[in-house]
């Protein structure tokens, strides 16, 4: 087989790995492209395990890039949220995908060191044995076990406590959008958990909520106010359901252009996290053809 065929066979896995390591689509694509260039220059016919070789190169590049990404996060205006990963998995893959790319988990991964993040992702998401993780990271197996253990401990509180069925998720999403658009504050509050939080990312490009909003009253009042101001200004919004980061979400369009992407995290019967992406640079994946 050609070196291009061997690489393409593993491209999707590499893109998924790089995205989970960085939370940025363009950065992930750059990492995969650099991995390809190194593969192209290597004597690939002497490489016995292409998948392991490619994974090692991709992971090490991602670790290096994640260090510079941390510096960029420090100067980011407002709250940073990961770029949306727009892909709808098959029914058998949904639970695994939701667990590994939910926005809540992606934010939690940001708190880990690059090595902890890599060890966790390789072992927990991609199923590499710990001796394989050690070879990829060029560390001892014992060191990698400690990295993965620290990561699991740190992430335990961020793991979803409840996996909503897609139908339940969509029901809450539809009710949430209907209440927000109509300005029905009480109906909106009734859908929100007592622990609800609203996280917004405008990147300094557009107006968003002033920090993280907490509690049903504060969150409902803010969201209803947004729709009310839009109506007063004569703005017309279209809302489409789109699947991203492991679950159903909604994309709001104005004048045919995406202006917000909303992703809800739910617990039994209520919404406990709302992630609102408003930065135009992070809405590119939702542009209509």
Corresponding CATH superfamily of the largest domain: PhyR, sigma-like (SL) domain
- The oligomerization state is single chain
Mean pLDDT: 89
Query: The CATH topology of the largest domain is what?
Result: Butyryl-CoA Dehydrogenase, subunit A, domain 3
Report the major sheet.
6 strands, mixed
Using the coordinates above, name the CATH class of the largest domain.
Mainly Alpha
Verbal overview:
This protein has helices spanning 3-22, 25-41, 50-74, 94-101, 103-109, 114-125, 130-137, 141-155, 166-182, 185-191, 216-232; strands spanning 192-201, 213-214, 237-244, 247-254, 257-267, 270-277. With 289 residues, it is of the alpha+beta class. Strand 3 and strand 4 (247-254) form a beta hairpin. The model is unreliable at 92-96 (pLDDT under 50). GO terms for molecular function: DNA binding; sigma factor activity.
Main traits of this protein?
289 residues, Butyryl-CoA Dehydrogenase, subunit A, domain 3, DNA binding, sigma factor activity, Nuclear Transport Factor 2, Chain: A, RNA polymerase sigma-70 factor, ECF subfamily, RNA_pol_sigma_r3/r4-like, alpha+beta
Q: What's the short version?
A:
InterPro entries: ECF_Sigma-70_Domain (IPR052704), NTF2-like_dom_sf (IPR032710), RNA_pol_sigma-70_dom (IPR014284), RNA_pol_sigma70_r2 (IPR007627), RNA_pol_sigma70_r4_t2 (IPR013249), RNA_pol_sigma_r2 (IPR013325), RNA_pol_sigma_r3/r4-like (IPR013324), SnoaL-like (IPR037401). One of its GO terms (biological process) is DNA-templated transcription initiation. With 289 residues, this protein is α+β, with helices and mostly antiparallel strands.
């Amino acid at each position: 087989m050609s070196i291009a065929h061997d690489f393409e066979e593993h491209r999707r896995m590499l893109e998924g790995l790089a995205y989970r390591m960085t939370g940025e689509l363009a950065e992930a694509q750059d990492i995969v492209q650099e991995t390809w260039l190194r593969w192209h220059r290597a004597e690939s016919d002497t490489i016995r395990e292409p998948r392991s070789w490619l994974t090692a190169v991709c992971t090490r590049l991602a670790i290096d890039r994640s260090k510079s990404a941390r510096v960029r996060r420090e100067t980011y205006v407002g709250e940073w949220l990961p770029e949306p990963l727009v892909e709808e998995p098959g029914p058998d893959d949904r639970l695994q995908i939701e667990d590994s790319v939910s926005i809540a988990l992606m934010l939690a991964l940001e708190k880990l060191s690059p090595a902890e993040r890599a060890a966790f992702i390789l072992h927990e998401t991609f199923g590499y044995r710990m001796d394989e993780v050690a070879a990829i990271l060029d560390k001892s197996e014992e060191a990698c076990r400690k990295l993965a253990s620290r990561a699991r401990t740190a992430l335990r509180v961020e793991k979803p406590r409840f996996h909503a069925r897609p139908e339940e998720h969509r029901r809450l999403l539809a009710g949430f959008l209907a209440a927000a658009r109509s300005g029905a504050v009480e109906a909106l509050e009734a859908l929100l958990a007592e622990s609800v939080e609203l996280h917004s990312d405008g990147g300094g490009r557009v107006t968003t909520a002033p920090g993280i909003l907490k509690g049903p009253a504060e969150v409902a009042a803010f969201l209803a106010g947004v729709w009310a101001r839009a109506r007063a200004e004569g703005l017309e919004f279209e809302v489409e359901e789109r699947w991203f980061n492991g679950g159903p979400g909604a994309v709001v369009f104005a004048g045919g252009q995406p202006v917000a992407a909303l992703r809800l995290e739910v617990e039994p019967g209520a919404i406990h996290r709302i992630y609102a992406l408003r930065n135009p640079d992070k809405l590119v994946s939702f542009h209509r053809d």
